[in-house]
Amino acid sequence: MEKFFHLREHGTTVRTEIMAGLTTFMAMAYILMVNAGMFANLEGQVTYNAVYIATAISAIFGTVLIGLLSNLPLAQASGMGLNAFFVFTVCFGMGLTYANALVLVLIDGLIFILLTVTGLRRKIFNAIPPAVRMAIPAGIGLFIAFLGLQNSGLVVDNGATLVSLASFNLYSGTATWAAIMPMLVTFFAVLAIAAMSRRNVKGSVLYGILGGTAAYYILGLTIPGFYDGFAANLSFNPLVAFQEFFTLSFGKVFTEGFHFTPFIEAHGMGGFVVMFITTSLAFCMVDMFDTLGTLYGACARGNLLTAEGEIPHIDQAMLADACATTFGAICGTSTVTTFVESSAGVGEGGRTGLTAMSTAFFFFIAMFLSPVAQLIPGCATAAALIYVGVLMMACVKDIDWTTPDVAVPAFMTVAMMPFTYSISFGIAFGLISYTIIAVCTGKAREVKPATWIIGILFALTFFLTH
After folding, report:
1. How many CB atoms lie within 10 A of CB 224?
2. Could you give the CA distance from residue 79 to residue 326 in angstroms, rounded to a whole number?
3. Could you give the CA distance from residue 337 to residue 75 in angstroms, rounded to a whole number?
4. Residue closest to 130 by CA, chosen among 288, 282, 308
5. pTM given for the model
6. Three-state secondary structure of the chain
7. Please, what's the largest Cα pairwise distance for the chain?
8. In contact, 428 and 419? CB cutoff 8 Å
9. pLDDT confidence of 256, banded at 50, 70, 90?
């Protein structure tokens, strides 16, 4: 492992890497349940169990690949946001079938393989202006902290202001102890992680998750009915889930995916062509910049960037991402991408591909224990996301906030990631604002041709698909 992963060179140990891998897994294990639950809405086409296995297998494949090819401590799985776009926009909104939508994901992966092999994907990353690039880690930090706040129940949608603090008012009866308890677990778990980190305790984020889990189940004893039916759905027989996976998901993109006749009959060939191009463009743009943003943010968090401020082994990392997306489409899940929660493991000290291999190993175990994976409460993993969000804000000190043509694109990048629930949209707004300001201030010649092209593609994506 020392010769392959160069642990000493990166200042890490096997124990640290395994702990980091476990931390990353626990921070992103929710995707197994969330993704499967989202696809379960496509009743009659696919099931929870089938997509659970598809999500796990594609996560294992992508995470192992990025660890072996790039030696980076990152993990991959079906991306949040893109899975919702797949189910609710492409399938329910446009009327495509589950198998039809998988074809678009497959094309997304094949295009990215081509872009990576030809070196165009690296040029696309280099087209991101420095002001936007510096702001990406902070934007991702706010985004994942927002995810954590939502998962814990602390931040809710009150209808009027879109986001609000959840009620803690036991006196008036607007809140119950059953609702408040998980929020308190998250809050105090964050403080515990911070205190342990201040004392240089190795594994503080992981211990925070485990401590939060223990506190959640202990405090559950104070809630009447908390344990009713607790073990009713536990099962250690994975054969049923695997059977559904091979029947309903695996290879569906080839056996049924290219059957677009019902859509063409309903919308005509012209409508089909427009839909096919614009939807493929949407998948590609979101996937590309989610990946680039996450790679840069996670590497910046772990001081893994090169002396030139670039992602190490970026071509290999992006090839792994492209191959994982293609493999995911074959398995029957939406776009597989590098996960922002990888920053949790990086924050725990992960520095090499051994962290990725560890994460993949825990995904392999979880594949056989689908009900047991749900025992880690969201309020515990939410604490890790919030704390890592804090750590990723450090980069804002390097941004020149007194210069408008730097400050505005940087701010748009940071603000729009959590507010639009998309890393790629934050990059899009930062990049477009940078370009427009450059034109208005007589600096249009400083804008790279690739930056113009990406900005136009983002604009087309917004106007045609959102």
Report:
1. 9
2. 13
3. 8
4. 308
5. 0.74
6. CHHHHCCCCCCCCHHHHHHHHHHHHHHHCHHHHHHHHHHCCCCCCCCHHHHHHHHHHHHHHHHHHHHHHHCCCCCEEECCCHHHHHHHHHHHHCCCCHHHHHHHHHHHHHHHHHHHHCCHHHHHHHCCCHHHHHHHHHHHHHHHHHHHHHHHCCEECCCCCCCEECCCCCCCCCCCHHHHHHHHHHHHHHHHHHHHHHCCCCCHHHHHHHHHHHHHHHHHHHCCCCCCCCCCCCCCCCHHHHHHHHHHCCCHHHHCCCCCHHHHHHHHHHHHHHHHHHHHHHHHHHHHHHHHHHHHHHHHHCCCCCCCCCCCCHHHHHHHHHHHHHHHHHHCCCCEEECCCHHHHHHCCCCCHHHHHHHHHHHHHHHCCCCHHHHCCHHHHHHHHHHHHHHHHHHHHHCCCCCHHHHHHHHHHHHHHHHHCCHHHHHHHHHHHHHHHHHHCCCHHHCCHHHHHHHHHHHHHHHHHC
7. 68
8. no
9. very high
Those residues whose C-beta lies under 8 Å from the C-beta of residue 214, and which sit 6 or more positions away, are none
With 0-12 / 13-18 / 19 or more C-beta atoms within 10 angstroms meaning exposed / middle / buried, residue 303 is exposed
Confidence of residue 233 (pLDDT cuts 50, 70, 90): low
Identity of residue 261: T
Please, are residues 315 and 116 in contact by the beta-carbon 8 Å criterion?
yes
**CA 305/CA 298 separation, integer angstroms:** 9
Decide if 75 contacts 341 (C-beta within 8 A): yes
Residue 350 has which token pair? Answer: 């992960």
Contact, 13 vs 7, CB < 8 A? yes
pLDDT-wise least confident of 12-26, 54-68, 94-108, 264-278: 264-278
| C-alpha distances in Å from residue 18, one per residue of 24, 36, 73, 432 | 10, 27, 10, 40
Angle (CA) 250-251-253 rounded to 5° is: 120
Average pLDDT, the chain: 87
Could you give phi then psi for residue 164, rounded to 5 degrees? -160, 165
423 touches 298 (CB < 8 A): no
Joined tokens for residue 57: 């297998």
The Cα 155–Cα 304 span in angstroms is: 32
